[in-house]
Amino acid sequence: MKRRQFFKTTGGISLVAGSGLESLLMNLYAFEEKANLSKVEALYYKKHSDREIECLLCPRYCKLGDKERGYCGVRENMGGTYYTLVYGKACSINVDPIEKKPFFHFLPRTNALSIATAGCNVNCKFCQNWEISQVRPEQVEHYDIPPSKVVDLAKKYSCPSIAYTYTEPVVFYEYMYDTSKEARLKRIKNAVVTGGHINPEPLEELTKVVDAIKIDLKAFTQDFYTSYVRGELQPVLDAIKIVHKSNVWLEIVYLVIPTLNDSQNEIQNLCRWIMNEIGPDVPLHFSRFFPMYLMKNLPHTPLSTLEKAYKIALAEGLHYVYLGNIPSHRAESTYCPSCKNKVIQRIGYQIKKIELKEGKCKFCNNPIPGVWT
Amino acid sequence: MASKVVLIRGKGVLNGDGDIDQKRLLSMYTRGIQALLNQQNPKENLLLLFRRNDKVGIKINTIAGKMLSTRPEVSLSLAKLLSGSGIQEKNIIIWDRTNRELRAAGYHLNIKGSGYAIFGTDTRGVDYNPRLISHLNIGSLFSSIQSDWITSSISLAILKDHGMAGVTAGMKNYFGTIHNPNKYHDFNCDPFVAELFETKLIMRKHKLSILDSLVVQYHRGPSYHARWAEKYEALIFSLDPVAADFVGWQVIEKLRAKKGLPTLKEEDREPTYLKTAEKKGLGKANRNEVKIIEEEA
Ligand code: SF4
After folding, report:
1. Structural domain for A358, as ranges
2. Contacts of A34 in chain B (CB under 8 A)
């Protein structure tokens, strides 16, 4: 991702206690506001009496009076009508390898035009993009890019897919939904990278217009979700089941954080749940944690912890288990569960070799699930 | 020792059209500050709290539009009292999050460098200080006005019912100093209101709470609903930020009871953050340790 201009520059002035107000004022050249937000009526909300509304998009069900914004900070009640403020207002737009999301069984070796708006409906203490996810839209620079322009850009940069990523696409649902519909008309696929905090109805609708969803499962205990995510585990598990039942390709990522969600018991419970509810074919990525945002007090995840998780998942019967953020590790590659040969060789985000033929292992003809073309 | 809270009623401070009688307002301020600080000369009173070279922030609340924001007359009268005590006008800033909200509440913005400064954090060149402040459950960027410019702060808040917090008053007013207040509304804003207040940037600078209770929204807040807004014509003063809000809460409960509304507890939105604040030693939130002095100006 390119370096983002998160906050307005101060034009080189320093605002120091003890300096006169004049020095501050001399440098203020306008009462400019970074307003320029969208005012597009939101989907999925209920109107109540007294200009109150209730947002039905995610499991927070924010109930808001006039002039208030939801927890995500990007939806506002204006006089009893609920609006999204970020429709067509991308604060980040880049061309990324699809492997970076990570999607390992979805259009490998291609680029995705990747976009985000400000905002998120949880507040993970380890967020790596907090400068854009944990802010209000007026606090970041953004570009005016309506859905049709996003699709044009994807074409221009030869991206066969558009990824809705970096922050939490659920909070820019309307923008993502309309862009996905337009993209499909131009034969461009859509990939969503989400924490899975979304209610069943909007998710089911979304699965009708997108092609792949990666869900970040942050832990397998509600305690962790309460303390470090400020969210709920159950709706995320429900979202995983809904995506699995749809025609949309699903991958799961689990960021392994030392001492907080890395116990053998928790990893085993997670893998057993996946086996029971989803089956062995969903790719499961264990990612290495690096200290950041509000969680700088912990070390990065030891390789041994990740390798233990990897072994547990394989022992529980999962077919496609990966380790992330450890370039050159053998667990970055895909192995055929039948003949055990390496069918996709990866190093970091690079694909070195693909040994698939029409979605089947070249060595033994075993089908490898995914969206390959 | 009990915390003192002064509640000054000013019958007639709002005329039939809701306009403010400035003289009456000024006498409410004078009386309130005298009663709070036990000094006869109001000029000297304020110098018990502020130094002449202080840069004083008057943090107002303009989120709910013209009908339910700290009115310009209310904040400017306070600014006049401050400058009357020897603090330079140019070192007094009346501020909130955004210029849009300030304008909508009737303010004329001023960045001229003379007179009282009036502007929002979103003024180009001001903004949030990019240093992330982490304290217990809080992780936020603070307005440069709060973090870098002012040396002392007055929370001049509107007293209102709040759908999530139960009550919003002097302490919660500081939600307007951070970039992500929307992240702190879970669990009736508890412990977030107390924890935010406890950060050094707020606690060390906060000197005085004044609750603008001229019109009190006692139900369906924090937005304005004429049906549940009472012309209460009072100002509440305290050096104890928790006690001030505790008394504000009692006012709201009384108005609710008078109108036959359930208590905030019955509606599952008791402002429990006040107890949390008390436990942290930030002030008092119980009847036995809050001494209320109620007077008519
Ligand atoms: S999408 Fe935003 S406004 Fe809607 S319920 Fe979730 S956090 Fe609240």
Report:
1. 335-373
2. 122
